[in-house]
Design brief:
By secondary structure, the chain is α/β, with parallel strands linked by helices. The chain folds into 2 domains: 213 residues, Glycerol-3-phosphate (1)-acyltransferase (3-Layer(aba) Sandwich); 34 residues, no CATH class. It has 9 helices and 9 strands. α4 links the parallel β3 and β4. The longest helix has 25 residues. Pfam families: Acyltransferase. This is Phospholipid/glycerol acyltransferase domain-containing protein. InterPro entries: P_lipid/glycerol_AcTrfase_prd, Plipid/glycerol_acylTrfase.
Length: 278
């Protein structure tokens, strides 16, 4: 068994060094994701966070789907955990193509990693191209307002912006799958935001948590909270394709998605009374 693993590892390194691997037009590197990124995330979601996933039958086995989730945690681990858990546990082993903020794609190394794992900038043209190509796309409309909120505001959804994700779904007739994630709020409980330092470093916020910056690099180790992920029933949009530019339709649909996620969060929190339980 070990001989096979060593041979597989050497073959992988040989392909990487020689450039004999494929990426798609967005930079998605399936081999690197399968061999390196997902195994690391698997240790986190399965062993550290003890993640339970419900409602996978609501995620389509093929064709496009727009997965819309709540965002939290000071560091956006929830998006990565969601993508890895979905791929591992969905019968069709689907990849979630995440849409990220501009800042992510301006950061050295992080930008490259995001592209390699299938991510792209959160803009409608890219989202629509992915959806028209039959991909499963993940978006977190709260953005930095969600991951940068104080612990006292945990599990209270922030504003969903202008509903650009709804317009992308409507133009492509793609079903919207709301997903609620419980557990991310406790990994780095944000007690304060040092705004002057954030402005100096050109960051959306500078967090103070029970462990950061007091413990230095050790403060980046996430607390082992218990995670629950619930995929909700899909919301069809094919009958609303002609309403993609109607602000009332877009707002109402965005509000429906937001309310679905918020109510599901309440239900999951009742199911998980202890944030650090088994």
């Amino acid at each position: 068994m070990w001989d096979r693993r060593v041979a597989t590892g050497l073959a992988f390194l040989r392909r990487r060094l020689s450039g004999e691997y494929e990426v798609d037009e967005f930079g998605f590197d399936q081999e690197l994701t399968d061999q390196v990124l997902h195994p690391v995330l698997r240790l986190l979601y399965r062993d550290w966070f003890r993640t339970e996933v419900f409602g996978l039958e609501h995620v389509p086995d093929d064709g496009p789907g727009l997965v819309v989730g709540n965002h939290s945690g000071t560091v956006a681990l929830d998006a990565l955990i969601l993508s890895a858990a979905l791929h591992d546990r969905h019968p069709a082993r689907r990849y979630l193509r995440l849409l990220g903020a501009d800042l992510v794609f301006r950061m050295p190394f992080v930008s490259e990693l995001a592209r390699k794992s299938g991510g792209t900038v959160a803009c409608n043209p890219d989202a629509e191209r992915l959806l028209r190509g039959g991909e499963l796309v993940g978006v977190f409309p709260e953005g930095f307002k969600g991951i940068g909120k104080l612990y006292s505001e945990r599990y209270k959804l922030q504003r969903f912006g202008r509903g650009g994700f709804v317009s992308a779904a409507l133009r492509t007739g793609t079903p919207i799958v709301p997903v609620a994630i419980v557990g991310g709020e406790e990994i780095y409980p944000m007690l304060a935001d040092i705004k002057p330092l954030a402005r100096l470093l050109k960051l959306p916020y500078f967090p103070v948590t029970p462990t950061f910056p007091w413990l230095g690099p050790l403060g980046m180790v996430p607390l082992p909270s218990k995670w629950l992920i619930q995929f909700c029933a899909p919301i069809p949009t094919a009958h609303l394709v002609d309403s993609a530019d109607d602000p009332i339709v877009v707002f109402n649909l965005a509000d429906q998605v937001r309310e679905t996620i918020q109510q599901t969060l309440h239900q999951l929190l009742e199911r998980r009374p202890d944030p650090f339980g088994p």
